Amino acid sequence: MKTYDVRTHGCQMNVHDSERLAGLLETAGYVDVNSLTERPESADVVVFNTCAVRENADNKLYGNLGQLRPAKLKNPDMQIAVGGCLAQKDRGIIVEKAPWVDVVFGTHNIGSLPALLDRARHNHRAAVEIKESLETFPSTLPTRRDSAYAGWVSISVGCNNTCTFCIVPSLRGTEMDRRPDEVLAEIEALVAQGVIEVTLLGQNVNTYGVEFGDRLAFGRLLRACGDIDGLERVRFTSPHPAAFTDDVITAMAETPNVMPSLHMPLQSGSDRVLKAMRRSYRSARFLGILDTVRQQIPDAAITTDIIVGFPGETEEDFRATLDVVRAARFSSAFTFQYSVRHGTPAATMPDQVPKSVVQERYERLLEVQEEVSWSENRTLEGREVEVLVATGEGRKDRATKRLSGRAGDNRLVHFAVPPGGSEPRPGDVVSVDVTYGAPHHLVADSGLGGGRYAVRRTAGGAAWAALRESGSAKPPVSLGMPWVGSPRIQPSRRHELLPASCPDSPPSDEPPVGSSGSPSGAS
């Protein structure tokens, strides 16, 4: 029995790609080493699915490769593969720096992994294969999903924007959109397997559709998700402020299973810095979007990405960012110190900000956002929340005797099961009242005092229980979703998804427009 171990760094798109890598290896006869009760010292194949957004991603990869070298020397038949964005960037340099690596593959050819492993084994030398563009949408690959009740669904890959700090477009390629029929067919297949929550993935989801001529396609897609029986929660990541339109906000507000959560990357609150970043919006436009969202979806929780210390950022620029953070009232923020990425325009810009100044500003930003997050979470005390119970969300659950999951607005909730109360399964939904709003999570112990505590069994919980009964930690490999034959969606919905000018043929040869990249690998 040959074993594998896929180790993932980076954004949600990498997490989903790793599910595909696992599916490919399982189909090739390998077994996930983490599923074994008695594990070998190291797997027969170790795959690193890498990120290249920040400089420490390089250091992390080569550090991990160094740690594996003794195992490789001890077992020369062991194979090490490196894929993802850093592999697309560094290519053969990886083998030069770490000659014990067997396979290097990029973002456009993850389906080649099993063949490359075979080639390296046969030839007794490293197999390095990097493609310059995507030949087949990765949804056609087999997938071993991590969760029985929640799933990722890619609607597009690649990015057409030219943000000066971001290396993602050069590594993921230009935007390629899936047809809405294909997306909905995959969601329907997941729901049939017990999935009750899906997250739509794209580098810039709200430019979805421009490749096949429909600039309103993303809002239409959200509404179509609302027609899928059994699909309880729909999320998406990430949009770009410049392309975020009112029709999407209205679709979110009017489609009950689209959750009231929105990740809207700010990057900077300074208009001067936004221009230098080549972000085609300004702070007033950004705050105007948030106002419109909250007018239609009053309970929306909005998160963001912010970069501190972009080249040329002054104290005045930074204070403008703090002003926008206070005005925006983000429920949380992913904050980053600017990191030079060679190959991006920002890497050679003058006036690089000293590390000590970046650190000081970063700490001030964290302090302001902490105050905002805590204040926002305290307003939820006494409110009812519906929590989708999840595995792995609460690191202290055993010590606190609580369970954890996500509210509809995606806030993390830790809740107590009252004595004698029904214990939910992962994938079930629990209704509780918030008893305390902490800066980074909510506590909902209402059931302990005889207050609200209700468990609703779901298809997701049943799917999790069936897996556990079978002795498996993850769902079985699902085959890819190639598109053949007529559309599976109902004809009555088809006019809502595709414009009259859009035929049932491959996407047009017109170049796609609009998209973006970010420190998190999204917008």
Spell out the blueprint of helices and strands.
Blueprint: E1 3-8, H1 12-27, E2 31-32, E3 45-50, H2 55-74, E4 79-84, H3 85-90, H4 93-97, E5 103-105, H5 113-123, E6 127-129, E7 150-154, E8 156-157, H6 168-172, E9 176-177, H7 180-192, E10 197-201, H8 217-225, E11 233-237, H9 246-254, E12 261-263, H10 271-277, H11 283-296, E13 301-308, H12 315-328, E14 332-337, H13 355-378, E15 384-389, H14 397-400, E16 402-406, E17 412-416, E18 429-433, E19 436-437, E20 442-444, E21 453-456, H15 459-470, H16 491-497
Parallel strand pairs: 1-2, 1-3, 3-4, 4-5, 5-6, 7-10, 10-11, 12-13, 13-14, 17-20
Antiparallel strand pairs: 8-9, 15-16, 15-18, 16-17, 18-21, 19-20
Helix pairs in contact: 8-9, 9-11, 12-13
List keywords for this structure.
16 helices; 7-stranded mixed β-sheet; 3 domains; globular; 34% helix; Rossmann fold; alpha/beta; 523 residues; disordered C terminus; OB fold (Dihydrolipoamide Acetyltransferase, E2P)
Give the total of beta strands: 21
Describe the biggest sheet? 7 strands, mixed
What percent strand? 15-25%
How do the strands line up in the largest sheet?
A: 19-20-17-16-15-18-21
Q: CATH H-level name of the largest domain... which superfamily?
A: tm_1862 like domain
Oligomer: single chain
Mean pLDDT: 90
Classified by CATH, the class of the largest domain is: Alpha Beta
Structural class per helix/strand content? alpha/beta
Low-confidence stretches: 483-495, 498-522
Task: Count up the helices.
Answer: 16
Question: In the CATH hierarchy, what is the architecture of the largest domain at level 2?
Answer: Alpha-Beta Horseshoe
- Span of the ends, CA to CA: 41 Å
